[in-house]
């Protein structure tokens, strides 16, 4: 359990209260220098950046696994495809949509990031080497979605 | 008589497990003698938890349940078909058990439709500026030229002589000005008195502000309207004080007021109240904003793609947007950003002050129980007056229900619904009626006619050959030995106690339903999409009918959304139950009672594709025998292709 110190009533705190994971939300937003002065759109964009970062990290992990776990090639191929979708389709769509004020397409992109992560995970049929990364993506996706919905 | 072999599975214990269904009508449920005697008295939640424990430890529970059904027929549970609880329409990644599904190109390429409008590739969303001009129907649409997801939006363009056979034209408008640099978004066309066209559309400026811009055909003598000119004085409207810079979009077609000025409305929001702003103009370049709103409804959120038009109270033809008078009602429609649902309401328009009042405020625009054009996947819809045939035509954007990875892999996303005529239901006077345009009949090839009587709990294959491109028109009669039952219900209010979503889908059996067709099914019914009626007994032996599409078992794939859609449908005295279904690969459009209730669904089977696709008729009722008289047509492709000069010499098909 992480103890988070935030000033009472800060925008980050108020916003994160309305998400499924207050602590995660606050720690992610506080870790970005833009967080303290961002409006709701800005906070959503910060989190989408985090999704992008996590995606890149996961793709690197996937690439490394090809050598270490060659028997998982098929599942890794599917995961590679899924995470590339997050990077190349979901993230740009969400950034454009939120910047331009049509957040529903941002919501679609963010939801899909969670779906793609889940689909990748499912391909290992219970023996995934990526579980903790998958869970991170799902959690961040849910928090981000909650914030994007505030813009609708 | 009907085959008993491949029966639809019965109600599962998922009803007990699902908390959201605790308010269902219980009389049609059968209890299973699971070891819960102690828990029965401890509340529903405990029952759910206890049963959940048993289920996870004892895989044979379902078989006990099945054997204890008192029906004489076998209820063989088809292996491998999951009975998951209903997906919500919007996906939540951690709510579903998702396994990677190995989509291959064969499965994905099957999904492309044959006679619904879709661009050759990439992403499409809202219909824009539909109109008829110099012999051609024009269709514009939000389009991403670069990807299969939303972004980089331009106006795509296509023309047709008959609203069915479309020809792709070059892109009509691109973001090449500061006032639409970040997007050429949705807009509508207006015909001026001299027959010339003006187009109002939303631009996202270089600073991300939503503004309204004026455009018009560069060359009015070009029937194809290939080139568009933007007014040098754009934008003509910017967000007014009190309205957010990003809450101001989708201007409507203008209508003439009694003073001779033109009037438009634009959706927006103030806090959580959805509103429709109203402006008058004489030249489409300068506008006067009214201090009052056309309408507003609290707690409905942002109103996108507002549409406003008259409908005749007495006749079944369409009306020009400017028509007004005692024989006319006015419809306000808005697309709800929050829920992705299009709602409409019928009411009275007061031209003198530009306001509108709903006939029934309890189902006002945007309220969750308000009427919808379509109870499935259908958004950002827009009507236009077709002066060629005197009709009001409705376009609707039908997005995908699959993952974006699949969209990227297959290279496209979204289709448009088949254009529908829209009129007031002159019998109920409380709802609209929609129907696919007549011209779609030109796609009908061979047909088969059937008359079948099927008893309770039966599924019958309907042999029509190929079953991926079909037009089905059917009439149903229910026979039961029960007390005399009759339809006589003109109420349009949604019956909260019973709905398609909460009724357990097509497998939940009641006395008088469900019954209908299973489309896009494979031989073993491991994948199927039932489109059906579910009739229940209401007060005074009156029957209430819901019309549903159940996509929960439409595919083995788990990375798609599989909701159960539908709604109550008014069935009046003397009416038979009628249904029409258009099947076109990954889209199914269902119409009940001549279009009183419509449902569009996206379906992505993995097995029920190409030659393996079958059609079934089913009657899952417990007490009723159903007689179905129906005709099934094979539907030709519309062969939508890029325009070429040769297309001018082809005789138009009507």
Automatic annotation (TrEMBL), chain A:
Q: Which InterPro entries match?
A: C/VIF1, Invertase/methylesterase_inhib, PCW_Enzyme_Inhibitor, Pectinesterase_inhib_dom
SUPFAM superfamilies, per the entry: Plant invertase/pectin methylesterase inhibitor
What are the residue boundaries of the Pectinesterase inhibitor domain, all occurrences included?
7-147
For this UniProt record, give its keywords in alphabetical order, as a comma-separated list: Disulfide bond, Signal
Keyword hit for Lipid metabolism: no
UniProt-recorded Gene Ontology molecular function terms:
enzyme inhibitor activity
Does the entry feature the keyword Nucleotide-binding, yes or no? Answer: no
Its family remark reads: Belongs to the PMEI family.
| Family matches, as NCBIfam families | PME_inhib
Q: What is this protein called?
A: Pectinesterase inhibitor domain-containing protein
Origin organism is: Arabidopsis lyrata subsp. lyrata (Lyre-leaved rock-cress)
TrEMBL record, chain B:
Keywords from UniProt, A to Z, are: Glycoprotein, Glycosidase, Hydrolase, Membrane, Transmembrane, Transmembrane helix, Vacuole, Zymogen
Q: Which GO terms describe its molecular function?
A: beta-fructofuranosidase activity
Major localisation: other
**What's the protein called, per UniProt?**
beta-fructofuranosidase
* A Pfam family the protein falls into: INV_N
Look up keyword Hydrolase and say if it applies: yes
Q: What is its EC number?
A: 3.2.1.26
